[in-house]
Amino acid sequence: MVQKELTAHIKINSERCKGCGLCVWVCPQKSIAIDKISNNMGYFPACTDDVGCTGCAMCALICPEAAIEVYRDNTTQTDTASVTSTSGKDNA
Amino acid sequence: MVQKELTAHIKINSERCKGCGLCVWVCPQKSIAIDKISNNMGYFPACTDDVGCTGCAMCALICPEAAIEVYRDNTTQTDTASVTSTSGKDNA
Amino acid sequence: MSEKVLMCGNEALGEAAILAGVDGYFGYPITPQNEATAYMARRMPEEGRVFVQSESELAAINMVMGAAATGARAMTSSSSPGISLMQEGISYLAGLELPCVIVNIMRGGPGLGSIAPAQGDYFQATRGGGHGDYRCIVLAPASVQELVDLMQLAFDLADQYRITVMVLGDGILGQMMEPVELRKLPRRDLPEKTWAITGARGRPQNILRSLLMTDNQLELHNKHLQEKYAGICKSETRVEQFDVDDADVICVAYGIAARVVKSAVIVARDEGIRAGWIRPITLWPFPTDAIGMAAEHKGREFLVVEMSCGQMLEDVRLAVNGKAPVRFYGRAGGAVPTVEEVLEQIRKIAPVIVD
Amino acid sequence: MSEKVLMCGNEALGEAAILAGVDGYFGYPITPQNEATAYMARRMPEEGRVFVQSESELAAINMVMGAAATGARAMTSSSSPGISLMQEGISYLAGLELPCVIVNIMRGGPGLGSIAPAQGDYFQATRGGGHGDYRCIVLAPASVQELVDLMQLAFDLADQYRITVMVLGDGILGQMMEPVELRKLPRRDLPEKTWAITGARGRPQNILRSLLMTDNQLELHNKHLQEKYAGICKSETRVEQFDVDDADVICVAYGIAARVVKSAVIVARDEGIRAGWIRPITLWPFPTDAIGMAAEHKGREFLVVEMSCGQMLEDVRLAVNGKAPVRFYGRAGGAVPTVEEVLEQIRKIAPVIVD
Amino acid sequence: MMAGNFLEEVIIAGFGGQGVILAGKLLTQTAMKKDLKVSYIPAYGPEVRGGTANCMVVISDESVACPLVVSPTSLIVMNKASLLKFTPALKSGGLMVMNRTLIDVAAGRDDITLLEVPADDIALKLDNPRGANMVALGAYVTARGILTVDDVAACMPDVLAKRYHDTLEANIKTLKAGAAYIREHYDAVVS
Amino acid sequence: MMAGNFLEEVIIAGFGGQGVILAGKLLTQTAMKKDLKVSYIPAYGPEVRGGTANCMVVISDESVACPLVVSPTSLIVMNKASLLKFTPALKSGGLMVMNRTLIDVAAGRDDITLLEVPADDIALKLDNPRGANMVALGAYVTARGILTVDDVAACMPDVLAKRYHDTLEANIKTLKAGAAYIREHYDAVVS
Amino acid sequence: MQTVFSRTPTLKDCTTHYCPGCGHGLAHRLVAEVIDELDIRSRTLGIAPVGCAVYAYDYIDVDMIEVPHGRAPAVATGMKRMRPNNIIFTYQGDGDLASIGAAEILHAANRGEKITVIFVNNAVYGMTGGQMAPTTLLDQVTATTPRGRSQQNDGFPLRICELLTVLPGTAYIERCSLHDPKHIRQVKKAIRRAFEHQVEDKPGLTLVELLSPCPTYWRKSPKEAMAWIANEMTKVFPLQCFKEPEKS
Amino acid sequence: MQTVFSRTPTLKDCTTHYCPGCGHGLAHRLVAEVIDELDIRSRTLGIAPVGCAVYAYDYIDVDMIEVPHGRAPAVATGMKRMRPNNIIFTYQGDGDLASIGAAEILHAANRGEKITVIFVNNAVYGMTGGQMAPTTLLDQVTATTPRGRSQQNDGFPLRICELLTVLPGTAYIERCSLHDPKHIRQVKKAIRRAFEHQVEDKPGLTLVELLSPCPTYWRKSPKEAMAWIANEMTKVFPLQCFKEPEKS
Ligand SMILES: Cc1ncc(C[n+]2csc(CCOP(=O)(O)OP(=O)(O)O)c2C)c(N)n1
Ligand SMILES: Cc1ncc(C[n+]2csc(CCOP(=O)(O)OP(=O)(O)O)c2C)c(N)n1
Ligand code: SF4
Ligand code: SF4
Ligand code: SF4
Ligand code: SF4
Ligand code: SF4
Ligand code: SF4
Ligand SMILES: [Mg+2]
Ligand SMILES: [Mg+2]
To answer: Which of H125, H178, H209, H210 to mutate to test ligand 2, by most ligand atoms within 8 A of the CB atom?
Structure first.
């Protein structure tokens, strides 16, 4: 695996993932692929080596299973991710 | 009753009439009035002396009970009555 | 004791619902219950409560479902064809265990039928015209006063058991005027509606659902419902009896028909016939025990009188269970049996006793 | 004899309807009967006949009404919640005396319930879930072959008596595949549909109406209907019996449940228990006489098995009329009784006879 | 007032617009106010407007078992159609108030007490053209003797919609004219 | 073929996409064509996609009374979840075909005949990655001895949708590979 | 003497059960006249509503059926599909069509069923005693809006023509009024166009809305009722041809 | 490291029962995100449809009820009238809303009920196995249109937004699509606007239509399904804000 400075990365919950491939399709950086090993549900989940990931969150945005989390270096500030969800204060 | 040359007249079926007065209201010639004697249904039907009747058929056109028939001298030809009904040939 | 006022059944049932604290009325016009809808249109806003004329009976029962789901007291009223349109909704209400009150002021059927009084929806009310195994409590008042009292009971029963309560009357009950005391009955001690959907504040989400697809859930739910129903049978059966003890012929009738029959029984007694009278007040649960017990007495016969072709008849036969002959006299399609007709039937069955 | 093909019940019922000459199918998707709708969507146009996917079950039953009114053979199919929505329409069809066929492939209830097989709509089908006094003929096939045969009978009965015929099966019957012979049964000699509305050519206007408000018309109409129903009871009751003659315990079940029960009865006989089996094929008219006769034999007990909380049970008890004990074993909400469970019940009731 | 056990069953019948429903309600209300047991059933017909209207009133000193009246003990008929329809049902010995203004045929019963009252004429004379119902009711009440016209007059405000309260006086006058007619012409039957 | 009176009750179970429904239909069709009495019930679950699928096949020489299979005489399990769910129900002395490729646990029953078949592996080797169902069916049929794989192969066109008929050959090959595996590894149990 | 106007044969020779001045009688007559003019009496099938016009079959002398409240368009669908050569019309009130039957008219229109709908809008439920209809005007007092229809509680007057015009399945949609002879003529023309469209077997549903007086539940004299249509109703329900049928 | 995107709390932490690539999961997430952003979880009441999303309550963590097929708007009416301070939404499929429930959505809209409708249009009945929906495109093959939807037999694709826009009772109507990230953002904005409108207690019903993929019954891969929305569905169902809510 190529070592590199990560400014952003994603976390795929591979047990949630159904291998629909939509994240693969939309990732501008081609950072995501479909795995060759199936998960416990029998699906082949998405996986990533995070190479090139800009944290644009396109993948997370389109994931029907909300199986992707996106993290980014605090210092970087691009405009792509406008979908950060806030946790409701009111969830007592 | 004033004797006059009839070029047109109407026939009100006073047992059908419910005395709604709509014919009275629309007659341009004020040829229709409401009777003072009620019919068997308890309604006071419309009546006419045909004075002034032009056969314009306004009264018939608006009568909800289809209680009015209109007749006119063959020779007269005004344009008001466009609603002559034909009997369906097909009423076998 | 408050003063008596002369009121027609349809209006009185509305006022009784208001006394019972109904929060929302949802209904669609239909004869012979229109006075109820009109009354509520006037009175509910006066009380600061909700009146909605729904676009149909289908919408009405679903509005009731929504209102009841929030824990509110909700009701609708209609007449036979309108109640038929509610059957899917009623089955859902049973599945969801939502409390509500439905009034059916029955008219002649089947189809558009007539607006004349009838009792042809007994099967529908007591057996469930909707799909699946469920029951509604069915109350059958015979006078405007009883209607006022049972309406209030209906709301309590609904809340206590999380069940649909149907108040079943015929067109006469809705239209007739009688003196009534608009008395407010004491409310039962009722469980809190912790299941209601009101917003998940400080508690986990509440879910009201009837789709139960896994792990035998639906069968367990049905078991639970059946147990609840059995409990209701034990505690909530109501019946009125009159001159039963020594009777040779026992007449069974409900609602307005029961009043006609009572008159006939009184005259029969005058004629020296030992007639008696049983009036089920709850049609479900049906007073099976009372009738069964009455049937133990040897030599008795039963006469069921209905404004239908014979529906309660089945419940009476089930209760009697072969222990006595059960006869039937019915008028259908909006016709009402007369005292004289019923007397005729009684006379046929029972001998005159010269004391 | 034509060849046997393996077919699921839902498709087979569609093909049977086509054999019966159905002119129009109107339906709305619902599990577990979807294959029927899909099959008709494909086959009806192939046959040059009409398929319409209606916007709802409400619309479906009214489209059926329209088609039937013109004298055509019309049908719909659905499952429990969908049938509940048809109740007003069915009452109208009864009032108008329009012939049609309705298939109900029952699922678990109440409410949305489940898509698992069930028999919880027995009351609705046999007592009329709609308003007023009316009946539908109810046929309960127990195999795909019988489904094919009874579908054709259904159209004939509908036309002969101007009545709605309901074919009642559970989800298993719809989904299961069995070998069937798609045989076309001879059509009964049927009356001409002079009442149909087809255009008043050379005859006075035909009117189909159920609103009968004057001169006791509605009661007379009800009398006429009741007489018609009585005639059907006399002529069209169907029942299958098996090992009844010497039985100590007689099991009564219908549809798929009856097949489970039959297996249990066979095993019971092997164990030396004198068990017998009665399967109503028509649920209305119910085989009251057959069961009543079986109940005459002293010392017998009856065991009713249903995939419901006990609905046909009432008809059996009415037929037995106190002459013998009637027990019940039911599974509800989509569960199916097993052979072993039924055996257990049989064993509890009847002694083992050592010959 | 009548003494002892009694069951009075009244049918009031006429045209749709003749106010028979109001007359029935007024009679029922009055009896209720006098602590009698009552019931009242309007007949609601198929016709939207017009046609005949009628209502059934039961008055008793015991609670009313059957509110339906099939064979009335008293009958008030305001038009011919009603007369023809209900006369056969009137109990032998019963009382009939007939609106003579609109009915030009005989009752055809000699086993009843017949009061022929020109109700519309009397009302018209009092300038209350819709008051025939009150005339008939006044006549009935006076002849029957269960209630008095004053009882009835006292209850009129309860039954008449507020917006018609300006007609109270006229209606009471009309009611009393009906009573007066009976006293004048049928004094013998006044109980 | 088996002689005499018999009642074979089979459950075939696996993932949604594993073709258990097709295998069941094929088995049923074949038995029918051999003039046996049959019934077939697919289990339709709540899930739209995914989840487990299973079906019940009954084969008998007498007409099938109960089409429901609770305690199967034979069980074909294609994945672990199905094994766990259905193994307890298998009749003592029954036959189990287990897809060893996807099941890494033991059946835990010693009163049955267990056939462990690496169904997916075999199918994959034959370049028919969706053919594990056929392998298992071939194995079952061969071991059970009611029908032959040739019988089954002959019926495949009846059951496979027309648009898949290009896969017929591959599927028949896969089916036979299942049979061959049994003859090779479990010759003793072949009836 | 020449007969200028007489009762058309398809309008049966009897008295209606309608109130004096009711628009249903007028509407019936116009439908019957069109049927006779087009000479289609013997192949026309009518569907009566549940509403004051439930007895339409007692007046219009064609084969007819009475069906559940609001479901006429579904029934018509079943009929037309079975008998495409017959001329099928529904006659529906505003409660029947726009309230309880909203789904059925919408979907029949969307399917483009080749039927003709005569939609009688009298802004009230006549048959049941004058309750609010979907077409009741704001502030109009009815049995169920004793303080007048309130937009907040009861919603807006529902404009059916405007709504159905959106659907490509409709071929001809026109709103007319019965409030005076001139407009009555227009109604007749519209009904004729609708039926003609169907007779020519052209695609799509045809609907004519008639603003129609209900003097009884408007609590107006027949004359006042007509004036109220002209002055008030037409403001909310503008008279207009919303969709022209294609020329043949 | 900063979290750019994570699961919003109101979306329960579990796997859905949907097919891979199904739009319902997406729609749920967006609704849950808006609920959290507006901080209204504890006063929101949801109504699940009968359709693939029947289990919506298993995913969206607010009080919810499951109601008869198509009747959600009527149920919502009952709820909102009882609890005007709660935020009420229905979540409905195209079969649920546009077919069997046509009357209920129409009348709730016409009454101007203050509810929010999330309308998921996937041009097919998912739950029952891929039958024709009112929104199925012409020529689209489904289980009940094996030869493709035919305008003559089956009518036209029903455009709900266009229809409801005609009604004055609707306050905000927008059609968006889930077919790519850009459009998904637009969906979220629209859902937010709709909920906001209700939170601000402004009059009228709000409805957002979502073009949503059903790869399973379109017999397409998830990617192809998205492309089909972009290329085919949007032609028939143009993406558009049909009615702007008034500014507060
Ligand atoms: C299912 C059902 N609900 C209600 C009724 C009662 N009902 C009869 S007609 C009618 C409305 C009539 O109004 P409309 O359609 O406007 O016709 P109109 O009488 O005004 O001509 C209603 C609600 C019914 N017969 N059936
Ligand atoms: C009264 C009734 N009819 C039919 C059904 C069966 N049914 C369940 S969901 C559904 C349609 C689902 O389609 P849609 O609303 O488009 O939702 P989707 O699954 O596509 O998301 C149908 C017809 C039912 N449950 N109840
Ligand atoms: S955040 Fe953007 S760049 Fe990173 S994996 Fe996701 S789509 Fe690709
Ligand atoms: S979009 Fe989500 S579910 Fe689909 S492959 Fe990517 S992570 Fe898996
Ligand atoms: S035909 Fe014309 S002029 Fe003659 S009475 Fe009628 S309206 Fe008057
Ligand atoms: S319009 Fe007709 S019903 Fe009215 S008064 Fe004139 S004749 Fe009589
Ligand atoms: S109530 Fe209205 S619509 Fe009905 S008949 Fe009378 S005037 Fe006509
Ligand atoms: S069937 Fe379609 S709508 Fe339903 S879960 Fe699957 S992809 Fe989604
Ligand atoms: Mg109207
Ligand atoms: Mg959909």
So the answer is: H125
Specify the pLDDT at position A39: 84
Return mean pLDDT, chain B.
Answer: 81
**What residues sit around ligand 10, an ion, with C-beta below 5 angstroms?**
H 93-94, 122
* D200, D194 contact by CB (below 8 A): no
Chains A and F contact (Cβ–Cβ under 8 Å for 3 or more pairs):
yes
Average pLDDT over residues D310-317: 98
Distance CA G44, CA G63 (A): 7
Q: Is the CB of E48 under 6 A from ligand 7?
A: yes
Q: Looking at ligand 6, which residue's alpha carbon is closest to its atom 2? A: B63
- Measured in degrees and rounded to the nearest 5, phi and psi for residue D100 equal -165, 170
Task: Write down all domains in chain H, each with its CATH number in brackets.
Answer: 24-243 (3.40.50.970)
Domains of chain F, start order: 7-186 (3.40.920.10)
> What number does the ligand 8 atom closest to the CA of H218 have?
2
Ranges assigned E (strand) in H1-126: 2-5, 44-48, 63-66, 87-93, 116-121
Cβ contacts of residue G232 below 8 Å, gap of 6+? G137
Share of chain E above pLDDT 90, in %: 75
Q: Where are the domains of chain B?
A: 2-80
Give the residue from C235, C250, C283 where a domain finishes: C235
Interface contact F49, partner H, CB < 8 A: yes
Query: Which residue on chain D is closest to B92 by alpha carbon?
Result: D202
Burial (0-12, 13-18, 19+ Cβ within 10 Å), G123: buried
Which among C246, C251, C278, C254 is positioned nearest to C264, based on CA atoms?
C251
Which H positions 37-96 lie with beta carbon below 8 A of chain A?
37, 39-43
pLDDT band at A73 (very low <50, low <70, confident <90, very high): confident
Q: Is D351 helix (H, G, I), strand (E, B) or coil?
A: coil
Closest residue by Cα to residue A4 from A49, A47, A48, A46? A49
Chain centre distance of CA G97: 9
The whole-model pTM stands at 0.96
Class level of CATH domain B2-80? alpha beta
Take atom 4 of ligand 4 and give the residue whose Cα is closest: A20
Q: Are D101 and C201 in contact (CB under 8 A)?
A: no
pLDDT along chain C (355 residues), means of 10: 87 98 98 97 98 98 98 98 98 98 97 95 96 98 98 98 98 96 97 98 97 90 98 98 96 97 95 97 98 95 98 98 97 92 94 68
Residue where one domain finishes, among candidates C180, C214, C235: C235
Rounded to an integer, the average pLDDT of E50-67 is 87
CB neighbourhood size of E187 (10 A):
8
What's the pLDDT tens digit per position in G13-47? 999 999 999 999 999 999 999 999 999 999 999 99
CB contact A41 to F (< 8 Å): yes
The enclosing domain of D48 has a CATH number of 3.40.50.970
Inform me whether the pLDDT recorded for D299 exceeds 50: yes
B32 touches chain G (CB under 8 A): no
CA angle, C58 then C61 then C66, to 5°: 120
Domain shared by C223 and C256, yes or no: no
Is G79's C-beta closer than 6 angstroms to any atom of ligand 1?
A: no
Give the pLDDT confidence of F115-173 residue by residue, as tens digits. Answer: 999 999 999 999 998 899 999 999 999 999 999 999 999 999 999 989 889 999 999 99
